[in-house]
Amino acid sequence: MDDSEASAAAVTRPLLAVAGAGAADEAAVPPWRDQLTARGLAVSAGLGVLFCLISLKLGLTTGIVPSLNIAAALLGYFLVRTWTAVLERFGVVSRPFTRQENTVIQTCVVACSGLTGSGGFGSYMLAMNHKTYAAIGPDFPGNRAVDVKDPSLGWIIGFMFVVSFFGLFSLVALRKVMVIDYKLPYPSGTATATLINSLHTTAGAQLADKQVNCLGKYFGISFLWNCFKWFFSGVGNSCGFDNFPSLGLAAFKNTPTYIGCGLLTPHIANCSMLLGAIISWGFLWPYISTKAGDWYPANLGSNDFKGLYGYKVFISVSVILGDGLYNLIKIIYATIKEITIARSKQGRLPLVRVEEDDEGPKLSDEDMLRNRIFINDSIPLWLAGSGYVGLAAISTATVPMIFPQLKWYLVLSAYLVAPLLAFCNSYGAGLTDWNLASTYGKIGLFIFASWVGQNGGVIAGLAACGVMMSIVSTAADLMQDFRTGYLTLSSPRSMFVSQLIGTALGCVIAPLSFWLYWTAFDVGNPDGMFKAPYAVIFREMSILAVEGLSALPQHCLSICSAFFVAALLINLLRDVTPANASQFIPVPMAMAIPFYLGAYFAIDMFVGTVILFIWERVNEEECRDFKDAVASGLICGDGIWSVPSALLSILRIDPPICMYFKPSSLSWLLLTNNVNFAIGRTGSPYCKFAMDMVMNPLVSLKQTWWVGTFW
């Protein structure tokens, strides 16, 4: 998903309240080297694989990836506790499992899986390949065959290694300013720290066991449901329960993953997506369809950019850009304003109320302990500076070898301005929990694509987008993890090393996970499961930056301008209205996603938000304690099924049964006559099986093996 959509799905409320997590004695805090353990790294690697698969599946289907920090912390706790329990059965005594080790595991896992987003596997990197070029069409203005670079493990892993570490060195010197001086809240990081602190208390451990059991139960339900569905999914996209017409034949793909995402996503975001689906697919697209033959040729295919498909993509892009531009300006304004206030008040930002006397602020013993640990285990300035300069030199030399269209001076100029953008993004994420890395990436895309022009501008813009996204995204993630470490008394050094290890793992695991999907499934097919919606959008933006607005279909510019302005006005309305009213105003970014992608996932996520709403009203405490465990179980079970599903696809093992659903045109009797007529003319047992499934499903199950084998 686009980062701002993902941030809308971020958990901004603690899973558990901190119970009994008072200030620990400083002597009880392990040294930073002891916080990094072999078992922790092994667990991090295993969870990194799982979370990369989950993030990629979500990114390649809807582009929506919720915050997985809570799930990483909880699963890390469960796996290490299981590890130590098994060893104790064999008489092996293990070192105690501390909250610091739990924090390091969570940091490493999120750093690893985060590269599936900043690595562009569902956006800028996939936008370069031949499938996306073909989906847009070779006759589309500015879409040229020379502007194609197909995925290959070699160059992908190399590119990831040379661009993914910059963000870690760009702002590490400002960790004290961001976390202690400015007291930026980083809501997701604070929620994760609250959970980890709670898990490592007696009461928290008891509740954690219940949460893990709940997660395991829904993990099993989700995994087994996907396994069951596979047997009936046949070959192609028209068979199986994914085509069950739950709310009409156009909205049929109810899956545990999106329902789980709906449990994690705020109510307003889910409702916004449903509203966007209603506006686009209920009114706007049917209206534009009536203009076929007038605004655009009537005989175009469903994926031709000169027709309705072009309106879907460009209107979605206009809303996304309008929302992103507004939030970018707002956060930059807030950053400048707060820094100005800080200077006038000697470096203190009024983000957190502090009781003061004439001698300065009063700090609790726990805060003083946190400050000492956070400051004492400092990361040398020379390491941060030399690391950034050294990586910039290596990347300036190697990136043009991977992308010849992006010259060395363009890469160097990107690295000169990247720290400033990384600071703005990290500060904004700390204030609002919105990571706008994708917005900064799009700005880089437009600047560098237009700078290079028609001789390679499309690829150069996409590659520059990747460079900018990697830096600003990892910098914001690092500061959020520093906030988590600060609250759990974890050393900044162990957090930084954990980020380095997680990033290194992600540079290998994320491309391999993507390659599994790429080789096993038809990634990028607009009519398939893995549509990779943002790949088309990013390529279109790069083409527009090179070619200008002449590539738009008729009247598309006027409609896009109207939606762009509407996105700005809706955001402004959300900010100027009182909080009790603004909570009901939709989020434009969330509304834009179903414009292009479809209504099916919006309905699934709305189902999740309805379940959450009812659960909150029936038992608020139980909902607060277990909703994240239920959601994580549904998402993880669906995600881990992608591994055996991909292996079956690679081995060319097809499901044995194709079960499909079609509406009755006139009546059940007419349907019966039609199918019997088809059987009489063709003698097809497949048609008869479909009819039996409708009229007598229990009897027809006896025939499934034979019919599936025949089919």
Automatic annotation (TrEMBL):
Q: What are the alphabetically sorted keywords of the record? A: Membrane, Transmembrane, Transmembrane helix, Transport
How does the protein's chain sit in the membrane according to the entry?
Answer: Multi-pass membrane protein
Q: Which Pfam families match?
A: OPT
Sequence intervals crossing the membrane: 36-56, 153-174, 268-288, 308-329, 379-402, 408-427, 434-452, 458-479, 500-520, 556-573, 593-615
Tell me where it resides. Answer: Membrane
Q: Might you report a single GO cellular component term?
A: vacuolar membrane
- One MF term in GO for this entry? oligopeptide transmembrane transporter activity
Q: What is its main location?
A: membrane
InterPro entries per record: OPT (IPR004813), YSL-like (IPR045035)
- Highest taxon in the source lineage: Eukaryota
Give the signal peptide, or none: none
Q: Does the keyword Transmembrane helix apply?
A: yes
Question: What NCBIfam families is this protein classified in?
Answer: OPT_sfam (TIGR00728)
In the record, the note on similarity to other proteins reads: Belongs to the YSL (TC 2.A.67.2) family.
In its UniProt entry, what is this protein called? Metal-nicotianamine transporter YSL6
Natural source organism: Eragrostis curvula (weeping love grass)
